[in-house]
């Protein structure tokens, strides 16, 4: 009977994973644009420079679409050249593992750019995320059914969908944090620690560090909890073995990627990031902002009603028990794992809180992407804290139903409250399709002092040719020179990035063509205009 139950639970887990894959593919089909950091992901895994704007011929020249596709894709003659992955990360501010994996996946799209290169990598990582959410939850709840519920809640949350759609290292960081957490909790529950366990711990530390430096913030949180536990129990064997493992892992890590020292301690994302938010107002603003982001992307703005309902449901049962004279907690709860599981909860709650606090201080922008890696931990701990409250009065089967219904209500409000994901960029109103349909040249008026060109590079891969005009060269005479002898029968698309008076561009085009430009779309960091039947007077 027990074997049948185990097999059934495995089947349910597989079904959850299959459903999430189908869901992510359906959402991936809707993804219609890219954040500049996503373009960076593609460029950093293959190009010979960090940014295409570093090319000497970038400014004040016409380029065909292949010029921009070359930045975003691996060419046939670059298939075996993986060195650029390492060199670009050395020159940038991130470790190389994600870019290496993206490079491997790009071998399926040689000489072309495809969103599915990154999305397929994320979806594969998403499978691993669900497996480890299940494993961690199973350790905490000592219940496979509750673990399956938590896995489903996380898999179909807005945060997880956003994580899958954002082609950056955050999905991989999410996986490495969960991998590390599972190994860490497994070690805690063992009476003796084997070398094999320490090797797995060391591997998780190396993989996490090679994914994103924010990983070390979470590790620091677990280390502080471990120190506290060691001092309280006066048992230092576990702490000593952890420290030795961490030191050996750090040595191996730095042999693989020694440039991490410069990135973390001397780069603009290191000390610069720490000092930028070091005042009470900014810290409190960051915390409040991230609480709101969590509320939106996990609870669909229902976190307060959720907390109230859990408390009300718990105390309703308490009141009923009191009226009936029932004072004994559920016998199901009286087992030797009770205290151990409570301690296990501390090992993920404290590191998560520390991560959120530090990230709210150091992140340059207060955005979802920076907390995506701990969103599954937030889901787990929310269910776990609810479970701790409810388990005093309800058996596990009842708790399963209560949490399942509450989260079903939350998930079902997605279409009513927040039905568009940020990282599918549907708010851009199919601008890529519209640009491709017009099949017109692009004139990109570029302010080098506000370099967010990679936010718009995808559009340049859809136009037959693009001219990058330095805004400092802008004049009526320059426009006449640039557009002379160009094929403008399909009109002209004009893109202006930030940091200069766009009215000057509008006036110059009015003067040379006698037409007003049509504003067709506001983007992340630019405005797009269109001139139909464009003729220079």
What does this structure look like?
With 537 residues, the protein is mostly helical. It folds into 2 domains: 2-30 and 120-420, no CATH class; 426-531, no CATH class. It has helices at 2-30, 36-44, 65-72, 83-91, 97-105, 115-141, 144-155, 158-165, 170-189, 195-209, 215-233, 237-256, 260-265, 271-276, 280-299, 303-324, 337-362, 375-390, 396-412, 414-417, 431-438, 457-460, 476-483, 502-513, and strands at 61-64, 442-446, 465-470, 492-497, 518-522, 526-531. The N and C termini lie far apart (85 Å).
Number of strands: 6
Q: Helix-strand pattern, N to C?
A: HHEHHHHHHHHHHHHHHHHHHHEHEHEHEE
Helix content: 55-70%
Structural class: mainly alpha
Enumerate the strands of the largest sheet in spatial order, edge to edge or round the barrel: 1-3-2-4-6-5
Mean pLDDT: 89
Radius of gyration: 27 Å
Calculate the terminal CA-CA distance, rounded to whole Å. Answer: 85 Å
Strand content: 5-15%
| Count of domain modules | 2
The largest β sheet comes out as: 6 strands, mixed
Q: What assembly state would you assign to the polypeptide chains in this entry?
A: single chain
Report the total helices.
Answer: 24
pLDDT < 50 runs, ≥5 residues: none
Q: Which geometry do the CA atoms define?
A: globular
